[in-house]
Write a structure and sequence with these properties.
Layout lengths: L6 H16 L19 H4 L1
Length: about 45
């Protein structure tokens, strides 16, 4: 049976991607942009 993809799952993915990018030695963790084009920016807000 296929699992449903929820906003919580998507938010976890966004957090994981941010953490991965922020861990790079040449990345500025305070300057990583996030653009959300669905859900009215709901996930980008968090």
């Amino acid at each position: 049976m296929r699992q449903a993809v929820t906003r919580a799952h998507n938010l976890d993915d966004i957090k994981d991607a941010y953490d991965q990018l922020a861990s790079l030695p040449y990345a500025d963790a305070h300057s990583i942009p996030l653009v959300e084009v669905r859900d009215g920016g709901y996930l980008a807000y968090y």
